[in-house]
Amino acid sequence: MRSESRSPRRSARPPRRRDRRGRGVRGQLAPVGVPLHRTPGEVFDDLVMDAVDEIEEHWGASAEQLSELEFAVEDVPSAEADLEFAPDVVLDRGVPLGRLFRDGLPEIAQPVIVVYRRPIEARAIDEDDRADLVFMVVVDLAAEFLGRDLGDLDEFD
Predict the structure, then answer these.
(1) What are residue 105's phi and psi, to 5 degrees?
(2) What tens digit of pLDDT does each residue of 103-132 get?
(3) Which of 3, 58, 88, 137 would bridge with 100, disulfide CB 3.0–4.6 Å?
(4) Closest by CA position to 71, among listed 103, 108, 39
């Protein structure tokens, strides 16, 4: 699970590089500053944080209540039963796209909204559609956390 306040742990030893089939030592495909260097997970993390930033901009007073929430990304949901009618889960054809954990997770003590990357990417047609899906999941779960209907919250431009 990725969280906005944590960075991935890395081992102390340098990555192994080998000379396969005598063609030379492998190197990076793209320099660090180029967008190609970013992994799909990192790009998805940014989409989630962009959605959170947009909510904070537009919801005003309601956004202050969201400050106690953590936002995290997991690749796929864990195999759990009875999610079909849970109010804290956003489903698409029985597959969870996101979930609100009101009591937190073992590693995070405060409430957490978890967005599932692979199910959203599988449903998105293009990058804009993926960003819209992420935004809708985050907004829906944030409204559920606040205990408010989406119609009661300020409209987005």
Answers:
(1) -120, 170
(2) 877 777 888 999 999 999 999 999 999 999
(3) 88
(4) 108
Q: Decide if 40 contacts 82 (C-beta within 8 A).
A: no
Q: Residues for the chain: how many in total? A: 157
48: tokens are: 């989630």
Which residue, 10, 12, 44, is CA-closest to 135? Answer: 44
Structure tokens at 145: 């956390």
Q: What is the pLDDT of residue 10?
A: 46
What average pLDDT is seen over the chain? Answer: 77
Between CA 81 and CA 66 the distance in angstroms is 28
136 vs 142: CA distance, rounded Å = 10
Q: Tell me the DSSP string of the chain.
A: -EETT------SSPPP---GGGS-----SS-TTSGGGS-HHHHHHHHHHHHHHHHHHHHTHHHHHGGG-EEEEESS----SS-TT-TTEEEETTEEEEEEETT-BTTB-S-EEEEEHHHHHHH-SSHHHHHHHHHHHHHHHHHHHHT--GGGSPPP-
* Amino acid identity at 3: S
Share of the chain above pLDDT 70, in %: 66
User: Region 81-102: what's the mean pLDDT?
Assistant: 79
